[in-house]
Amino acid sequence: MSEPGFVSVSELGAGMIALRGDLRSKVFRKAAEAGTGLKLPAPCTIVWDGARALGWMAPDELLLVVPEGEGAVTVAALEHALAGQHALVADVSDARAMFHISGPGAREALAKLTPADLSPAAFPVGTLRRTRLGQVAGALWAEERGLTVLCFRSVAVYMRDLLADASHPDAALRVF
Amino acid sequence: MLYLKCPYCGQMADETELASGGQAHLRREGPDSSDSAFEAYLFLRDNPRGVHFERWRHAYGCGKWFHAARCTRTLEVFGTYRAQMGAPPQDILAAIAARRGETA
Ligand SMILES: [Zn+2]
């Protein structure tokens, strides 16, 4: 990025685990909650504390976000808790990239890239949506401090350029 | 622009977040079927000007396949329903009938 845009974009390092299984199963729910210390989120939402997050990705898929370097130990704990269950635990820390977009105009910058309605009314804090960002798939969620974007690591450079372009200082919008 | 509500995650998905899967409720023809039945299964599709039942996948979202009933002429969407259903459910048929003044 040659000059700073109207929002700040930073790439975050984090441990990320894809957890798939039957969300109605007590054992599965308990394992997911124990892996993060967080309550299972409602559909299309994400919950977090300072260090960890638990997101609802699909009717049979959750995302666990843990501090960088804690992916392997969390996977081991989940596999232990889910032994004998029909479930899948995958450490996707290196397969995904995560960006945080903050500052006034963060929603506007992302609204240029996705068909999702990012107005605060339609996309309140805690909402998680998997959608399209430019030409690639991604997930995004709203926090008090801004928005977090998740995409495949293979398109992380594209995403970084896309975000830099959308937040160009000459292209600021005030919509929301 | 077409918007469909995914019956699995409940989100209103934009057309560009979806992948089209063509005509719904095809009956698969097996190895014992006649050549003409197998040809029809593989290649022959309805192309109505009006009510159409289709398969769609929430490709950029939760990833699930689902069904949609819509009008190809007006782009009106009558509703969406789960992929496990072998035929359109009664509420969808009723919605179509109500809008068309036809009996379902
Ligand atoms: Zn969906």
Keywords summarizing the entry:
heterodimer, A: 176 residues, alpha+beta, Alpha-Beta Plaits, Gyrase A, domain 2, 2 domains, 5-stranded antiparallel β-sheet, 10 strands, elongated, B: 104 residues, 4-stranded antiparallel β-sheet, two-stranded antiparallel sheet, 6 strands, 19% helix, binds zinc ion, TrmE/GcvT-like (chain A), SoxG (chain A)
CATH architecture of chain B: 2-Layer Sandwich
Form type of chain B: globular
CATH superfamily of the largest domain in chain A: Heterotetrameric sarcosine oxidase
Q: Mean pLDDT of chain B, rounded to whole units? A: 94
CATH topology group of chain B:
Folate-binding fold
The overall average pLDDT of chain A, rounded, is: 95
Structural class of chain B: alpha+beta
Strand order in the sheet with the most strands of chain A: 1-7-10-9-8
List the strand order in the largest sheet of chain B: 3-4-5-6
How many independent structural domains of chain A?
2
The percent range for helix content of chain B is 10-25%
What's the CATH H-level superfamily name of chain B? Folate-binding superfamily
Low-confidence stretches of chain B: none
Oligomer kind: heterodimer
What Rg of chain A do the Cα atoms give? 16 Å
Shape of chain A: elongated
Beta-strand percentage range of chain A: 25-35%
